[in-house]
């Protein structure tokens, strides 16, 4: 049986502050769950040029984004870090067809996602790490300059993630431990007690 599959379909939003490791964990899960056809890891649409370090995305021209959003190209969209982001509209059909869809999202769209899909079809995996780790990782990643990194660190504690179907995964330790707990959360296996708590601040 495919652990991550759901007869009802499920959207899993992976959220957390910049630098916490969302894309790294997603890349590892995508590779390790490759054989499970019930779990999909779609690419996001972003008004960031192709070829930047980090996540592979679908590049969209800034001048096209809002008309695409109006035409329904995105299931969810948001603005952050002077960029626009969209989760492709086909994800809704994928969930309706019973797939488990796992994608990186802004903490700001959790309520919109709950309104759109209802709690039965939605899980939030909130990735956490301490601020020192975030700073070191953003500096080492080298995609943003020092000013942008400060903005991202300021935004880190801007949200308090509460509500149903939230699983927390701490990615403070070695990456392999983070990956293991992340895959457990996707497959809804219990995460060790100190790694997860519902209704806890990020
Ligand atoms: N457990 C870990 N230990 C050490 N380094 C890590 C760990 N997890 C991720 N990293 C590193 O931290 C950096 C930031 O990770 P990543 O880009 O995945 O974060 P993110 O949450 O997707 O950030 P953003 O929201 O800005 O895209 C990467 O260079 C990654 O290799
Ligand atoms: O702070 P919040 O709104 O939760 O996250 C905002 C956005 O910031 C990050 O963008 P990027 O991947 O670094 O471009 C996340 O992936 C997310 O899409």
UniProtKB/TrEMBL annotation:
Metabolic or biological pathway, per its Swiss-Prot or TrEMBL entry: Metabolic intermediate biosynthesis; 5-phospho-alpha-D-ribose 1-diphosphate biosynthesis; 5-phospho-alpha-D-ribose 1-diphosphate from D-ribose 5-phosphate (route II): step 3/3
EC number: 2.7.4.23
InterPro entries the record matches: GK/Ca_channel_bsu, P-loop_NTPase, PhnN
Broad EC category: transferase
GO molecular function: ATP binding; ribose 1,5-bisphosphate phosphokinase activity
Keywords: ATP-binding, Kinase, Nucleotide-binding, Transferase
GO biological process entries: 5-phosphoribose 1-diphosphate biosynthetic process
Guanylate kinase/L-type calcium channel beta subunit domain segment(s): 8-190
Keyword field contains Ribosomal protein: no
Catalysed reactions, semicolon-separated: alpha-D-ribose 1,5-bisphosphate + ATP = 5-phospho-alpha-D-ribose 1-diphosphate + ADP
Domain of life: Bacteria
Name listed for the protein in its UniProt record: ribose 1,5-bisphosphate phosphokinase
């Amino acid at each position: 049986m495919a652990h991550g599959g759901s007869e009802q379909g499920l959207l899993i939003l992976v959220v957390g502050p910049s630098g916490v490791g969302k894309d790294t964990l997603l890349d590892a899960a995508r590779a390790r769950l490759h054989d499970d056809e019930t779990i999909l890891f779609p690419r996001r649409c972003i008004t960031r040029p192709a070829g930047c370090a980090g996540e592979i995305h679908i590049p969209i021209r800034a001048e096209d984004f809002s008309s695409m959003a109006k035409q329904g190209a995105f299931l969810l969209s948001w603005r952050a870090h002077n960029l626009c982001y969209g989760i492709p509209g086909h994800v809704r059909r994928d969930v309706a067809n019973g797939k488990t869809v796992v994608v990186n999202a802004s903490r700001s769209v959790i309520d919109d996602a709950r309104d759109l899909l209802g709690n039965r079809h939605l899980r939030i995996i909130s990735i956490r790490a301490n601020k020192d780790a975030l700073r070191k990782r953003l500096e080492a990643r080298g995609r943003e300059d020092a000013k942008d990194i400060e903005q991202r660190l300021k935004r880190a504690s801007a949200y308090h993630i509460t509500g149903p179907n939230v699983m927390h995964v701490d990615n403070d330790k070695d990456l392999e431990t983070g990956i293991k707990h992340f895959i457990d959360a996707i497959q809804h296996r219990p995460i060790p007690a100190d790694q997860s708590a519902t209704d806890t601040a990020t």
